[in-house]
């Protein structure tokens, strides 16, 4: 990118005021078409609809520009239809808003629509527009059966609409720049022809000197990868905004960071990582105007500052826009990658009027957001204290392994038919002489960020496998041990080989080991997770999908991956007595597991009523305080192992 597009809207209007763009002649590059193709394939799969399309409208006809590669999709790429026949998409373009038709056959306004000839009776579509508000076309979903698309699916379609329109902004800006350069070149040629040779040489020397100075100045103030302003430029611009802000305005500083971005570079390579950063910068630039400034200040960290009215609604609007930019999956090469993000917000004049201090406070708030797994966090009086506490935890965690402060507790799995203990989940515990007992949710994420999770994970594997092997020998029968696995452990290309070596070392059969993974792990890197799961199952190791039912796409993961066990999240079990919806969902999850020949575990069982319910629904295993709390290995032996020996 030779020029920076991170300028406000009024500057853009002045720069290109005399240039008219024929958007119909703008060519969409193949790499962008490939990204759109991946978006449609993902949309069709998530929504379970046979056709997902991007349509492009021309003067007299409308074209299937990109079509999902799904079974039962009758629309082929580059198919065209003339306008004026009342097509679904033509109506969306004319109205400029969403069109949702669950069943055209039941709708007198649509029961003669031309698309019915292709069997498509359900439709949901949104308009796609260029930055000058002219129509590009639509993005839509169609089905050959009645389909009342849910609000979550329509929201997903809207997020993809935003991502594609961000691409159109980039193409439009490039077309303007190209046309502007052509006009400049014509003027230079005309002037050069009129001037004498000596004058031409002088002008050339001045142009070269100006170009060199401009290039040096540009690289001092802008990020070469994304073209966005850098940290120095950000501080200067924020300082200027703070000087000019009046009492009726508020300045919000949003510090945005992509979580675990190093793993993207490690898994896919730096070229893919750079492409993701470039795509995100283009999305963010879509919101740049005279009151909004966007910068990339380091690695996968961006800052957005905006002067606006004091109303909280204005702040929330900006936060939601930025989060939508991050939440939309990134289609790069043959991959569709979802990256979690965290954001911290500081505001002037409430949190200060110094640029560096505001940036530091927004960064501290982002650190808190990363630590608690939230999408965003505002700086407040507790933020700095929380950061200090995190630093304290981190300093003690560094030596926790060497000082033998980490240990494992074991919670039994109960066979609901026989009432026998058939295994246990190994749960990590940390007791520090100064901090006391530290809950896992306070230090696991911290260990993942500072890299300690690999050593801690190996400690858990060695300890739990050795203990399980001992109990198998004492019982003279197989004893299942379940262990939670971190995403960083699975990113090791030799992870399955490492597990195989440990099983050999401790003489434990692979079928006695069950590794628990979460939906969050699958969302971060589906390609890597699929390969790791396949290799582990080939060894005979069981894979459990933990916290099932809490994520919006859990069902799609059952289709993509081969699991052995479903673990119903405790949030459903805890409300069985009082919430009819949770009872029905629990029944449905157990039924799904049975249908797919999966073992189903209900965790968090604490009452006899809950036990009776899951037993009546023929759930396989139970886990919870009703059967036994997490206890030490010695206590577990006395309470469960020795009893079964007799």
Write up this protein:
By secondary structure, the chain is an alpha/beta fold. The strands form four sheets. An eight-stranded mixed β-barrel has the order 14-15-17-18-19-20-21-22, surrounded by four helices. A six-stranded antiparallel sheet has the order 3-2-1-6-5-4, with helices on both faces. The longest helix has 44 residues, at 151-194. It is globular and about 100 Å long. The relative contact order is 0.06. This is GGDEF domain-containing protein. Residues 390-644 form the EAL domain. Residues 249-382 form the GGDEF domain.
Descriptive keywords:
globular, eight-stranded mixed barrel, 646 residues, six-stranded antiparallel beta sheet, alpha/beta
List the topology elements.
Blueprint (H helix, E strand, L loop, with lengths): L8 H7 L14 H18 L3 E7 L3 E7 L12 E3 L5 H8 L3 E3 L20 E8 L5 E9 L7 H44 L2 H25 L9 H14 L5 E9 L2 H8 L1 H16 L6 E7 L2 E8 L3 H16 L2 E3 L2 E3 L3 E8 L6 H18 L3 E3 L2 H17 L8 E10 L5 E12 L3 E3 L1 H11 L2 H23 L4 E5 L2 H4 L4 H11 L7 E5 L1 H6 L1 H13 L3 E7 L5 H7 L4 E4 L1 H4 L6 H16 L3 E5 L4 H9 L4 E3 L9 H13 L1
Parallel strand pairs: 12-13, 15-17, 17-18, 18-19, 19-20, 20-21, 21-22
Antiparallel strand pairs: 1-2, 1-6, 2-3, 4-5, 5-6, 7-9, 7-12, 8-9, 10-11, 14-15, 14-22, 15-16
Helix pairs in contact: 2-4, 4-8, 7-8, 10-11, 11-12, 13-22
